[in-house]
Amino acid sequence: MYQIKDRHIDFILNDISARGVTIEDLQYNLLDHVCCIIENNLEENGDFEHFYQKTVQSFFKNELKEIEDETISLIIFKNYYTMKKAMIISGAVSASFFTTGLIFKFLHWPGAGIMLILGIGILSLVFLPLMFLLKVKEKQSTKDKVTIGLGTLSGILISMGILFKVMHWPGANIMMQGSIAVMLLLFLPFYFFTGIRNPETKVNTIVSSIILLSACGLLFTLMRSPKGTQIRDQQFTANFLRNEKLLQAEWALLKEKQSDSLSKGLNAEAEKVLQMCENIKQHIVKEQTNGLEIHQLKNEGASIGDHSFSDVFNNTTVSKESQVLKSILEAYNQKATTKVDYAGMFFDDSDFHYINNINIIMALEQLIQVERMVLQNERVLVASK
Amino acid sequence: MIYSSELIKGTLKTIILKLLKENKRMYGYEITQTVKDLTNNKIQLTEGALYPSLHALEAEGLLTTETEFIGKRVRKYYSLSDTGKKLSDEKVSEFADFVSTMKTLLNIEPKTI
Fold first, then answer.
1. What ipTM was assigned to the predicted interfaces of this complex?
2. Which member of A31, A58, A67 has the closest CB to residue B52?
3. The sheet that has B25-26: what strands, in order across it?
4. Euclidean distance between CA atoms A204 and A382, whole angstroms
5. Within an 8 Å CB–CB cutoff, is residue B2 touching chain A?
6. Alpha carbon distance A117, A167 (integer Å)
7. Cα–Cα distance between A344 and A121 in angstroms, integer?
8. Topology, domain B5-105
9. Domain extents for chain B?
10. Within an 8 Å CB–CB cutoff, is residue A238 touching chain B?
11. Nearest to B48 among A28, A37, A59 (CB)
12. What is the pLDDT along chain A (385 residues), one digit of tens a residue?
């Protein structure tokens, strides 16, 4: 029986860690194991180093680190079946939130938003990552693993992007563009060229790639082109500016009449309403165009986009002024003979339900309409004097 | 005949649990030797399969460990935890059942009519 000395132990331990085994527990287990074998099988005057190398090589196929890798993967995937179950459950939960949320959304019932957030959230943050981990475990080749990783990444990005988009959270566009870039520029070529080389998966790969490309194509077909959006926005802005011009003309006409009839100008309530509408419009436009005034729009060539009004509304000035406008209008209507009908306009609803469903253009138009109604009343008033 | 590693892989957990049930506490090398002796060298557990399994079983809470110093080196003894004891019986009877099913399936013991 060979006597193992301390220097042997140091030597073995160093060798084991040099071969890539880093888990201390495992190092000691292997050390003890090697020592046992040497003690039991090597003669007293045997060649330690030679015998050690031979023994340690019988532990693995390619390298000693295999044992550590296997240990890690077993420990991580000790919950393999739990993970599989969790994946199926999370998928089912997300799908049911999704369907119920969509039904609620189309029926316009409350709670649709939270269900869709949960549905998409669980899909992209629980289901897809779990699916990725389990699939990667099943696949052997690095290429397959990369393909799955890229696919999952673009899936997560696209679903989170859509969620962020509908919630008006920042970063939505970057996520969507990123997901499409990952899918078309990385995933698809990778998937296609690895799949096509294998005769077994060749046909499947071609068919799936075509389906994926067509799905993306159909999605893009539905989308408005950037140029189209630009033209639309320009049209919106031009319409808005024409309406503004009409309004100003009416205002000027009224002033002319007032000076003729020697009346003492607009009454105080009307003045307040008009002023507040002007303020809100300026704030909306400023918010949208990085600080431009309405009269600067044309010269600067800036346009107001088809953006959700809620983004601007969350700017506290606009929401505060909207509340003020409502109370001023109430006061105005109490005195006016013909009342300004603002039912259904964005500032009418105290819970601001409407603001999520209208865009900036509509909000601006509503304000112009209020102003024109007030001006009309004033003209009638002047005419009757 | 030495059995293929695929066959051993599926039964390793059962083997470890059963051995620890019989022997209270064992260390890695001891387990490989015991298996070798009991099976007349037919089953030789590889280090690459044994230690990952031991660590995984420990992480699952089926095994408890104690360490002892032997000179400068550390020896880790494994024994069954309470859940491990329960699972040991379950695994053994499951495997016994599996063996008899395999016998029928592979016609190793043709049924007499």
1. 0.88
2. A67
3. B25-26, B73-80, B63-70
4. 79
5. no
6. 9
7. 33
8. Arc Repressor Mutant, subunit A (1.10.10)
9. 5-105
10. no
11. A59
12. 788 888 889 999 999 989 988 888 889 999 999 999 998 888 888 888 899 998 888 888 888 888 888 888 887 766 777 888 899 999 999 999 999 999 999 998 999 989 999 999 999 999 999 999 888 877 767 888 899 999 999 999 999 999 998 887 888 889 988 998 999 999 999 999 988 988 888 899 999 999 999 998 998 898 888 899 899 999 999 999 999 999 999 988 888 877 766 556 667 888 889 999 999 999 999 888 888 888 888 888 888 888 888 878 877 788 889 889 999 999 999 888 888 888 888 888 766 677 878 889 999 999 999 999 999 888 888 877 6
B32, B55, B71 ranked by CB distance to A25: nearest = B55
The answer, for B111 touching chain A at a CB cutoff of 8 Å, is no
> Mind listing the pLDDT tens digit for each residue in A334-351?
888 888 888 888 888 766
Please write the tens of the pLDDT for every residue from A35-58: 999 988 888 888 888 999 988 888
How many Å apart are CA A30 and CA A18, to the nearest integer?
Answer: 13
Instruction: Give B30→chain A minimum CA distance, Å.
Output: 9
- Residue in this structure with the two tokens 């013909």, named with its chain if needed: A338
State the CB neighbour count (10 A cutoff) for residue A288.
20
B28/B50 Cα distance (integer angstroms) = 8
